[in-house]
Every structure is written in C-alpha cells, then in structure tokens.
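re the bet — no i am not wrong, look at it urself. input seq straight from the record:
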Amino acid sequence: MDHLFSTGTEVAFRLGYDDVNESLTQPDNVLRVLGLLGVKRDAACSGNPNGAHDAITQLGVSAAGGHLVHDPKEAAAWWSTHVFDKTFRERRSWAAIYRAFYRVYAVHFLLMHLLIAYAFAGNNLLVSACAGGARCIWPARPL
C-alpha cells in the first residue's frame, strides 16, 4: 500500500484500511482464504483451523542455496491477489470541498447546541445528556 502511495497511484486504485478490514471480516471471504491455505471448511467452521498459522507464516518463503529466504513482496502479492478486495471506489471531485465545508460547520453547530444546553442546564447531567442526544425518560425528576 505504501509503494502505491509513493508512486502517485490514484486513491481509487489503492487499498485502504477499510478495504482490508472488510476483506478480513466477511465470513465467505475468510472461509475462501482458509481453503486456499489448506484448511477444510468443516474444520474452519468448527473453530479448528489446523495448519492455517503455519501456512500463513510460510507465505513468501522459498529455499535458496540450502537455506530459507523470505520475500515480503511475494507474500504481499499473495495477500493482494487472494485476500484483499477493493470494495469502494472513491471518486475525487469538487464536491469533496463542499462536503468538508459542511462537516466542519455541522460539528460547530453541534458544539454550539451542547454549549447552549450546558448554559441553561448547568450541572444538571440529565438535561445535558438529553440535549446531547441521549435517550431520556421524562419526567425523571423535577428541574
């Protein structure tokens, strides 16, 4: 991922943390990857993935000159081609400027709302919590 960033690859074609998280939390994707690592489906479903750790640690390892050599680029290529999927393609446009502008002012509006609620409620935590959006049951107690 860092290599693609440093080469200037557009964000729509790079894997982000959200793509990695989604790829590792989809049950069908996890079962498929465990199958590629040599784990039987019934063993994976029963919580006994024998050999998966050994198979993962051997990714990118080859015997060269009588000793084992680890190639991290080969292991990263395996993960990129077999595990991680790009699930959302971000498109850059001028609308991103307006979206960022809206987010800043939405946060300011929320903070101002909380400050006004605190100014009128003082240290009454029930009123302050209700103004902040917590679920309140009225009348809890008289003000």
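see?? Residues 95 and 101 are 10 Å apart (CA to CA). told u. also The chain has a mean pLDDT of 75. so pay up
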